[in-house]
TrEMBL record:
This is Cadherin domain-containing protein. GO terms for biological process: anatomical structure morphogenesis; homophilic cell adhesion via plasma membrane adhesion molecules. Its main location: membrane. GO terms for molecular function: calcium ion binding. It is found in: Cell membrane. It comes from Eleginops maclovinus (Patagonian blennie). Residues 36-149, 201-296, 303-405, 406-509, 510-612, 616-739 form the Cadherin domain. One of its GO terms (cellular component) is plasma membrane. CDD domains: Cadherin_repeat.
Amino acid sequence: MFNRRHPRLSKRGVIWGLCMIMLYTSPPSCFANFSQAKQLIYKIKEGLPGGTFIGAIGQDLHLDFAVDPPFLFNLPQKKVNGQYVNLNNTTGELYTSATEIDRETLCPDNSEGRGCVLSLDVFVLPQQHFQLVKVKIFIEDVNDNRPKFPVDEISLSVPENTHINARYAVEHSAVDPDLGLYGVQTYWLVNDFGMFTLDVEQNEGGGHLARLHAFDPDLGANAQISYAYSERVPRDTRSLFHLDRITGVIKLAGKIDTGTATFYKLTILANGPGCIPAVATVSVHIIKVVTGPPAVVPRYIAPENDGELTIKESEPAFSPIAFFTVKNIGRNQRVDCHLEGTGPFRLGPYKKLKNEYLLETTEPLDYEKTQEYELIVLAKSAQGLVIKTFLKVQVLDENDNAPVFQQALVEVSVEENNPPNTFLTQLQATDQDSESRGEVIYLLGGDAPGIFVIDHVTGVLTVTTSLDREEKETYRFIVRAVDQGTPRRESLATVVVTVQDRNDNSPRFIDKDFTFFVPENFPGYGEIGVLSVTDADAEENGWVALSILNGSDIFMIDTGRGALRAKTSLDREQQGTYQLWIEAVDGGEPALSCITMVTVLLLDVNDNPPIVLFPQSNQSYLLVLPNTLPGTSITEVYAVDKDTGMNAVIAYSIIKRKGGEPGSFAIDPETGNITLKRELSNRGLYSLLVKVTDHGQPEPLYSTVMVNFFVNETVSNESYIQSLLTREAEIEVEERPWFKGQMTQGPERKLRPISNI
């Protein structure tokens, strides 16, 4: 039946059968991937042109071509592959090659009952998809050979007067290597001259004969029979088998090479006097007798070069490596085949295939542990004959290891103000893989500032510019170690660069100079003010101590906090302004410093009452003429106040009087000028108690003074007046509305009573 799945219908072979035999029904073992023996049978005609489609192995096995990695198909018999067939390695399609298949050449000893078969073993790869597929291609015969006589001319001697119907044997029969109907079917005479006829008989017969025996019913000499080879038997064949002419015994005459032929056909004639020879055929099958040691024929699944196999370390456990076929074994003989050597390998029989052994791994290989294994496949026959096959398994390195940094965290310290291109550190990472897979290059991560540079090969990290700790103290970024394998693998390390401080910054006051306003009489050691000072350096370089360059006998300053204090209470009236020079010195080596000026201004406090300068005392007096007119300025009270501002603004008022009528005198509150308001009707001593007060807050301070007027034309008795001044007397209170509530404090001077003169 023709397979119509391929477009080239006229050139494809016929698939004859597909046999799949399940070897186990129990749960799969480590050989589960190889427990199925698969066989494909195709049938094609001989003599097809090159490129004729034979069969699609992948499709006929119902393989899923969507798997990854994809399937590969391989013919381990390179000579057969190159001579007769071509295999598409990716699709598994089988085609005839440029070498035409001639059945008679391929199977020279083939008889009609035995088919001519081209047997192939096809490996389905890669290792994880491995299958061994037995492919048999039956070569069908076509009528491509003419019958041929062994000689161009056959000579027969016929005596004259021969009886009619006399028979003569023509031994030179024609040969046609084709089979069946395509072989020799009949003979005829092209020219019989009107005298001859041809009687065709097929006398093929006999079978595994060692002695021929023929008999003749005649008697005497007419019954004597002799034996001879037919002319059909080639000379080289006759040389191998000796035929006794009298007895018909066939003996071996020479050594038979089993590599040349395994079957011989001997055509023998039994000749009697005056009759046609009888014909017998003897078939000789050569049975190979094994005498030497077994032969081990390797067929490699893994890539091979001069007996050295290579396998990737990434291949999984139970990956097939090679097939070993044991040959040169006699019938019913057993051979022990096992593996010698160390490593994760095992050799076991391949199910359903006699004398086929599979070498596979038992666990994943690791190039970094072992790069090469030496194995021996040992085959031992039942007679004790041993053959050893040596092979090396080279483990191919793959990029299965990422680089590893010696330190995942690299901490580097560098002093600030470094010169450009300063060396920081050298990062080191190792990769256990080989060749370019183990070559490591170093790259900065995307978070690394542009001022850092790393040498791709050596891993040396440098900084291209001068660093300033005060600008940035810590840099943190990633460094990548990348190998050159495929695909590339990498690992990361964190680099922390700490900029160490140098004493490159002087202390700095937050203000160019300081001015503090302090109320006078501020308690000693009270905090006048704080001088804020900074130093951008760190640790000792940034520690600042303050000191007073002048005025340290009056002032002091806290070294650490910068608080300015006075050792004693300050009196503005003694000194209202102080100018101090303060120095700030850091703790670096050498130390750096700066100086600022501090002005301390004492704020006035109302701590001084007004001082009356005139009149000079309460005992003094002034002579006033009786005819003094009202409105006349008689005198003034003059006072001063040591305070300042409103604390020194003075107001004058008359708070008590003796003598005269109320309202006789008035005082200007601002100037202290005393004016007569009424005529003086009486002579004698007039006394006014004048209060001199300031405008200080929260409470005003004041003083009092007695202003004495002696009204008379002259002063005739000084002692009398003085005696009047020393006497005490009551004085009526003369109030003014703006004096209310302001007479509770301050000294009062008592007036002496006086009498009229």
